[in-house]
Amino acid sequence: MSTAVKTNTLTLVQAVTDGMRTMLREHDDVLVLGEDVGVNGGVFRATDGLQSEFGETRVMDTPLSEAGFTGAAIGMAVNGLRPVVEIQFLGFVYPAYEQIMTHASRIRARTMGHYSVPMVIRAPYGAGVRAPEIHSDSIEALFTHMPGIKVVCPSSPYDAKGLLVASIEDPDPVIFLEPMKSYRSSREEVPEDKYTVEIGKGKRVMEGDDVSIFAWGAMVPVAEKAAKEMAEQGVTCDVIDLRTLYPLDKDLIAESVQKTGRTVILHEAHRTGGVGCEIQSIINDTSFLYQKAPVEYVTGFDTPVPFFAYEDHYLPTSNRVVQAIQKVVNF
Amino acid sequence: MENQFPMKQWIDEEGNVVSEEFQENVTEDLVKQIYRQLVRIRTFDRKCISLQRQGRIGTYAPFEGQEGAQVGSAYALEDDDWMYPTYRDHGATMTFGHSLKNILAYWNGRNEACVPPEGRHIFPPAVPIATQLPHAAGTAFAEKRKGTKNAVICYFGDGATSEGDFHEGMNMASVLQAPVVYFNQNNNFAISVHISKQMRSKTIAQKALSYDMPSVRVDGNDVFAVYFETQKALDRARNGEGPSLIEAVTWRYGAHTTADDPTKYRDQKESDTRREKGDPILRVELYMKKQGLYDEAWVKQMKEEISKEIDQAVQEMEAMPEANPEDLFDYVFEKPTWTIEEQKKAYFASLERGGM
User: What's the complex ipTM?
Assistant: First the structure.
């Protein structure tokens, strides 16, 4: 008898659906709610087929009301359910931000552990898909700065399912960011059964000795592309997909920088106060004397994520990453 | 519109029974228990103001004048129900069984008050305005899904009705047909802003029409009317008939908090007049006297017991060991992240090196 794991070839968004389906099957207390998640299966089809399989009380279309349904999910979570909320685009989370900041993030602390909020807030995020304004915001730092919230951001189908399952099982609130641009850009073998990818652990996606590149979400393929170009010039890069933005994988960051001595941080979010600054802070704490060059940043600008006619100027490209790599190598 | 929501009363300001309804439910025992609770929370409230003045607790939000609304509504709950209070509803939480010591501790900056007593579902007081309304809808929905007969009561003030979360919460509850009672204490002021500047509608009760939700306007200083109307709404919730809204019209005699000066925004004579005519406790006393239920010896003994209970709670609060800084770090996540562990370790190391 074969013991091979049964897999399916899935895109990232299909892996997200598979993760929810797996958990809806596994636990009766898991439910999915948000705008258009039911009959329509979500604007990106992330919840496609779930309502017909699990019914309207498990996969619920809600009013157009981010604060209302996020707040209701908080009330459900403190009373034994495990809601998975879909925010249609991360840029629409602002009305619910108060609910997350003033309640979800601190109920456990306020009640000394008496109440907890085991909920997941899923949101597609990021630019590069020619979406209208506000739809492309990349505001992960608003959440990494928020105490009591974990922030997860997969870049591949396998990780998307494993991290989503881990997020739903997590006893605390998790913001689960799905890179819109990566939703259908690649496919990967994803196990049919339940498995988890540990929250808080990054992954080395390319091995190299000269420069460490830290990225997440839709920027991981950009980092890989730049690393491949540099490899042709004889410079090898350690490309790290951080996967979780709070808490960051300090050990992996330190290990990589201590090996290479040079760092390029890549994110599409605005530069100032971004997660990149926190990575640099970890490098200072753990690996100051290993550094052979100052840390280079390739990021979006401190401007609103622009209308899409300007998107290609805003989004980091592999060219900009190559230039940054050259800068740290030639320092 | 105002005519569609007449103010419900059971006893008037002179203590006369003005409604035929519920007469048989009003036993001597009920009257005495409710009266005792009213006196208990007023005594506590006054004690808190005095403790604040003496610097023994921090800023405090008084509720004097609103006792009828808080006791009447909380008294209608069953043990397994849920309560979502605001920062002015500790009279309601006390009535529902919260510990006096912990409520005092809350006003002294401690987390303990947010931990409900064993067997009680009392949520921490909501400090932002109206954000608890969606929670109550969700919690009530979870009870409905479990198939229980438990209901949720959610408190908020008149100012809260201007917030988006009020409407989002009411709408969610309506769509979910959640067993929740939204209990508004309309005390006429959102800190300093009079209700006439808060909204153009003449009643809060009418706002429920938009959500196809039953609502009622009740004299919030008539503890019995509040009790009966809340009971009716809770019964509807338990019977699967969905959410409802109660507007309890009342008045706070004092400041918004002890950090505020109400003479800046209103004529205190109005508060004095309301205290003389229509006070929730005085009204029950007049009723009891008319019914021959007012026993001075009993009242004296009751007041002594209450005063002892409160003094005891103050002593217990003041005898609490100093706030433990470990508590800062240990409850953020079920399992602390490395960031919090490192910060905690570094902080305690610095304490050892040189104190705070």
Answer: 0.90
